[in-house]
Design brief:
Blueprint lengths: L6 H31 L9 H29 L4 H24 L5 H26 L1
Helix pairs in contact: 1-2, 1-3, 2-3, 2-4, 3-4
């Protein structure tokens, strides 16, 4: 039987929860922008609306599979410190990316760093899972 109270699973649960709350907040931001601008669908050519939609959409594109991988890693016995390292990096990356998207329509440090850290943490998690499965 799987021990769901172990440190690794609780660490993964933390990052699932934080990213879920963040997803809701970004979705709320889109809804509030839609109400303010009276744009019901799409971005209506409004740059701020476009940035809000993409900040939310980008998290929605990256988070689900990453978080499934994180929970999988916890369930197969990856240590809690590794779950915190990769989960924390991913979460900070997504916060940076959203901050960059929402603060400017141009290239920003937040978008660059967030994208890079998202790719690195996702690659490390994916490679770790593949290696574990093959050994």
């Amino acid at each position: 039987m799987i021990d769901l109270s172990n440190g690794a699973f609780l660490a993964a649960t933390l990052y699932v929860g934080v990213n879920l709350v963040f997803m809701v907040l970004l979705g709320l931001n889109v809804s509030l922008n839609r109400r303010r601008t009276k744009i019901g669908v799409g971005d209506g050519g409004n740059e701020k609306m476009s940035c809000a939609v993409r900040a939310h959409g980008n998290l929605a594109e990256w988070a689900p599979l990453f978080l499934v991988g994180l929970v999988t890693a916890a369930l197969i016995g990856i240590p809690a410190y590794a779950i915190h390292a990769v989960g924390g990096t991913f979460t900070v990356a997504r916060l940076l990316h959203a901050w960059g998207m929402l603060s400017s329509t141009g290239t920003t440090f937040g978008r660059f760093a967030g994208s890079l850290l998202t790719l690195i943490s996702s690659l490390l998690l994916g490679a770790g899972l593949v290696l574990h499965a093959l050994t």
